[in-house]
Amino acid sequence: MIKLGLVGEGIAKSQSPDLHERLGASLGLPVRYDLVDSLGVADFDFPAAIQTLRTKGYQGTNVTFPFKEKAAQLADIRGEGVLRVGTANTLLFDAQGLRAENTDYTGFISAYRHSFGNQPAGEVLLIGAGGVGRAVACALGELAVSHLYILEHDTTRAQNLCRDLSAMGINASCITPEQAQQGLPNWQGVVNCTPIGHINHPGCPIDTSGLGSQHWVFDAVYIPAHTELLNAAAQAGAKTLSGVDLFVFQGVDAFRFFTADRLSADRIGPHVMPLRAYYIEQLVALPSQP
């Protein structure tokens, strides 16, 4: 039995336990995946929670809002994604110390390459510069993005991301909604990393009239799997990448880290597409389930 966890706030309905336990079962590796929810816990002590999991024999834990930055700071060893993004969503209890990885970063790269191969990302509109937006922006740096146009209502957050991307050698600039609408027909990619489109935040983050067959479009929202943005993109003839893909690929990447000493990547690989198909079916068929 391998014991894993997720530490975050308001995570009672997370799909992560199902993903890891389902993947483990398909590989003959029993997995127990527990939730450590800080919601309603006064003075929740994140470092103490992590140490408790380690003491109890957990292999590692995923980390989500609002602890991703703390997870990166707490680690003794930081993987490439953490060094680039500055946050972590996966902690591993290695013999060498606490190791942090960012599988939003690696997962987006895997999802993009699975759907689009070696197609350069090109010029991309990034909507939302929060945690996921930052991870995806850094990942696009590995996918031949030529310029990132950042649309974010929080000016300081947008400017900070632009500064950090520029330091990595990634061309980026902050833009207004009017500039996004004007430039969209000339760009290649559109990435939504805001909650807009989620069943709890319905709508579409941009005017989609400029979308066409020249575009590829990703929406980090995965409940529902077919958001207004992705539906509009499909109708315009654009290539689409669902948030379900990021959910699955980041989860699989975390599972690979958790089980590296027990399972080879070659054994895990054949189970990825059936897992993706399962979640696509579940999240399309049941769009009202948060």
TrEMBL record:
Residues 6-91 form the Shikimate dehydrogenase substrate binding N-terminal domain. Pathway: Metabolic intermediate biosynthesis; chorismate biosynthesis; chorismate from D-erythrose 4-phosphate and phosphoenolpyruvate: step 4/7. Keywords: Amino-acid biosynthesis, Aromatic amino acid biosynthesis, NADP, Oxidoreductase. It comes from Halomonas citrativorans. CDD domains: NAD_bind_Shikimate_DH. It comes from the Bacteria. The keyword Transmembrane helix does not apply. This is Shikimate dehydrogenase. The keyword tRNA-binding does not apply.
